[in-house]
């Protein structure tokens, strides 16, 4: 077991504890999954209760920055309060754009109109009358990989938890750099990543890399696994030059590599891709191709996109732009959102908004808390694998 003295909670399988209020209700034993031992379920229940208790004060403070976006008293999605208006997911509200309302932490139901649209991120900005507390976009800091984050709504409790799994990078095909190697999954003695194969006519071949070479560093960052190396390379764009520190026949040297563009691979049919993506929960129709996003394993529903995300210090991290698959939630970082809102939108309207309509009841808990068994099962499978790894 791993114990974090700073947070005061055990971290054994904590990612599974982070993702649904069901855990805080002792939900492990009720799922009925045969691979989860009773001892492990009891440990995870204790961890979940501890974590929820620890994060509750934070969620209570940050819920003022979130709203429900409603159509005829039905929650369509979440929104983030900014000084420019309510930032939310355009494709989720588009069919209802003429009859939308928001409900904030204060319980006031306000009419809104679409003020601006940014297609690159599938973001709409809604104008409203009022002064809900806006998130801070001043001096934002990107969270590191492995950092815990949570999604806020205007009601009590968090809508989802997870960790940052991949740092901010572009999902657009034209922005993805390509090295042209196949990496060995097996660990290398003394560190590094062994190259199993070099693809012909690629950046790697042009730079003189060979099968069997061991990559020790990407730039000035040491690498010790193919996922780590892949994440570092994802930060670059075609045409970027990067220095790779290589060990060949026990001798280190530096290879200067000019990265190429990703080739066109045979694509999976859209129908099959949608079926694969939706396994384990609902996903957004617009869920890929964003210019610069963080990736998290936070398990939420599609209609919880648009909500603000915070770290465990209560700092605003960014806004969810899409739930893409069982293990992928994409977040526009605070810095990118700040720059986006200063840029010219794809659509801008001259607007007039109505005054607050009436006081509504804000749910005491996240509205999806009772509908998360599918995601619970998939998380527990991942948890069990992590528990087994720890015990080896």
Give descriptors for this structure:
392 residues, alpha+beta, Thrombin, subunit H, Pdz3 Domain, 2 domains, 6-stranded antiparallel β-barrel, 6-stranded antiparallel barrel, 10 helices, 24 strands, disordered N terminus, disordered C terminus
What is the secondary structure topology, with strand pairs?
Blueprint: E1 3-4, E2 9-10, H1 14-17, H2 21-24, H3 28-31, H4 38-62, E3 66-71, E4 74-82, E5 85-89, H5 90-93, E6 100-103, E7 108-118, E8 123-128, E9 148-152, E10 158-169, E11 177-178, E12 181-183, E13 193-198, H6 203-206, E14 214-218, E15 221-222, H7 226-233, E16 241-248, E17 251-258, E18 260-261, H8 270-278, E19 293-296, E20 308-311, E21 316-325, E22 328-333, H9 334-342, E23 347-348, E24 356-359, H10 373-391
Characterization of this structure:
InterPro entries: Chloro_Bact_Ser_Proteases, PDZ, PDZ_sf, Peptidase_S1_PA, Peptidase_S1_PA_chymotrypsin. Residues 168-250 form the PDZ domain. The termini are close together. The strands form 5 sheets. Strands 3-4-5-8-7-6 form a 6-stranded antiparallel β-barrel. Strands 9-10-19-22-21-20 form a 6-stranded antiparallel barrel. Strands 12, 13, 14, 15, 16 and 17 form a 6-stranded antiparallel beta sheet that branches. Strand 3 and strand 4 (74-82) form a beta hairpin. The protein has 392 residues and is of the alpha+beta class. Helices cover 23% and strands 33% of the residues. It has helices at residues 14-17, 21-24, 28-31, 38-62, 90-93, 203-206, 226-233, 270-278, 334-342, 373-391; strands at 3-4, 9-10, 66-71, 74-82, 85-89, 100-103, 108-118, 123-128, 148-152, 158-169, 177-178, 181-183, 193-198, 214-218, 221-222, 241-248, 251-258, 260-261, 293-296, 308-311, 316-325, 328-333, 347-348, 356-359. It folds into 2 domains: 62-170 and 275-359, Thrombin, subunit H (Beta Barrel); 177-261, Roll (Pdz3 Domain). It is globular, with a radius of gyration of 23 Å. The model is unreliable at 1-34, 276-280, 367-375 and 388-392 (pLDDT under 50).
């Amino acid at each position: 077991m791993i114990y974090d003295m700073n947070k005061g909670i055990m971290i054994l399988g904590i990612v599974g504890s982070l993702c649904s209020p069901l855990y805080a209700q002792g939900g492990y034993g009720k799922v009925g999954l045969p691979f989860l031992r009773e001892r492990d379920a009891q440990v995870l229940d204790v961890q979940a209760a501890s974590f929820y208790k620890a994060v509750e004060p934070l969620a209570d403070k940050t819920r003022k920055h979130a709203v429900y976006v409603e159509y005829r008293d039905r929650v369509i999605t979440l929104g983030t309060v900014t000084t420019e208006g309510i930032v939310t997911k355009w494709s989720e509200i588009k069919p209802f754009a003429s009859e939308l309302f928001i409900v904030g932490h204060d319980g006031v139901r306000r009419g809104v109109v679409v003020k601006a649209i940014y297609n690159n991120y599938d973001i709409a900005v809604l104008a409203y009358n009022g002064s809900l507390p806006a998130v801070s976009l001043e001096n934002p800091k990107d969270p590191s990989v492995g950092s815990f984050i949570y999604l806020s709504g205007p009601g009590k409790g968090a809508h989802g938890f997870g960790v940052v799994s991949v740092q901010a990078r572009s999902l657009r095909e034209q922005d993805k750099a390509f090295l042209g190697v196949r990496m060995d999954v097996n660990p290398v003695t003394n560190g590094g990543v062994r190259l199993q194969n070099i693809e012909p006519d690629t950046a790697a071949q042009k730079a003189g890399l060979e099968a069997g070479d061991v990559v020790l560093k990407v730039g000035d960052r040491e690498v010790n696994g193919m996922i780590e190396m892949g994440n570092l390379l994802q930060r670059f764009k075609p045409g970027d030059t990067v220095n790779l520190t290589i060990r060949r026949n026990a001798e280190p040297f530096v290879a200067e590599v000019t990265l190429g563009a990703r080739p066109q691979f045979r694509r999976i049919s859209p129908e099959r891709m949608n079926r694969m993506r939706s396994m384990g929960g609902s996903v957004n129709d617009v869920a890929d191709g964003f210019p610069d996003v963080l990736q998290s394993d936070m398990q939420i529903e599609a209609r919880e996109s648009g909500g603000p995300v915070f770290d465990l210090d209560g700092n605003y991290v960014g806004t969810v732009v899409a739930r893409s698959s069982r293990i992928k939630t994409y977040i526009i970082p605070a810095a990118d959102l700040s720059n986006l809102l200063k840029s010219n939108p794809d659509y801008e309207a001259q607007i007039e908004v109505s005054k607050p309509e009436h006081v509504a009841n804000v749910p005491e808990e996240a509205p999806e808390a009772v509908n998360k068994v599918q995601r619970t099962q998939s998380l527990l499978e991942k948890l069990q694998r992590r528990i087994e790894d720890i015990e080896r």
